[in-house]
Write a structure and sequence with these properties.
Blueprint: E1 15-18, E2 21-24, E3 28-29, H1 45-57, E4 62-64, H2 73-82, E5 90-95, E6 97-98, E7 106-107, H3 111-125, E8 130-135, H4 144-156, E9 160-166, H5 170-177, E10 182-188, H6 197-206, E11 209-213, H7 227-235, H8 239-250, H9 263-270, H10 279-287
Parallel strand pairs: 3-4, 4-5, 5-8, 8-9, 9-10, 10-11
Antiparallel strand pairs: 1-2, 6-7
Helix pairs in contact: 1-2, 1-9, 3-4
Length: 289
Amino acid sequence: MTSTDTSAPAHASGMFQIGGKTIHRLGYGAMRITGEGIWGPPADHEGALAVVRRAVELGVDFIDTADSYGPYVSEDLLAEALAPYPEQVLIATKAGLLRHGPNKWISLGHPAYLRQEAEMSLRRLKLGRLELLQLHRVDPNYPLADQVGELKALQDEGKVGSVGLSNVSVDQLTEARGITEIVTVQNRYNLTDRSSQDVLDYCTQNGVGFIPWAPVAAGDLAASGGPVDDVEKATGATASQVSLAWLLAISPIVLPIPGTASIAHLEENVAAASVSLTPAQVEKLTSAT
């Protein structure tokens, strides 16, 4: 591991611009500060607040949430922990999913619903504008143009700064970019799941931020003698740190947002920003299956 500014270790991850704001690439995902099944309040309310505040202390200035986390719990906790927000912090949220119980997620892309949730996110987060609002999932029951078009209408009204997408294909991303500028895409991507490789490649080619969710999964690749284990031994990093360092290394537009409700795990994840991988190590991990 290489040395970094110990007062703000996340800053070693490099920078990326979203709208008019420049953020550091290693962020924090605020899904896990809710209750079990991403449903209801956390078991440790004060502990959840402490994790969020610690993330900012570590230099994290890109925090990802959604109206559906809880639902609403994550946004409420972020506001309680941080509002009024430090100037450098960008809160990104999402709309487009209904919640009917623990681990239940239902798409709803009716434009009126998207508008309602954006308006309520403004209130819950105590913001005058959502700097980044992402469509959480494309609802096949409504034209994509209507869903993205409503986010653009909110943008034109000054209620949304930038628009992003989540869980999309290249074709959907291309269509959406014909409606408004799309600054980020949030798809599942990690060492063991490269199913969105074509989307990542497109984002790299077009300068669109790519936010990989479930970023630290390493699976069998972290087994003794495996490629992740080999890099762990060579760098002194943990499997999670190697997974995050690899994501930061493969493209300058990748913005990992590892989530946790533990300060210890948070500190471990943020320290990944200072893990320096050689080109050979990056290639070994990239070619691993």
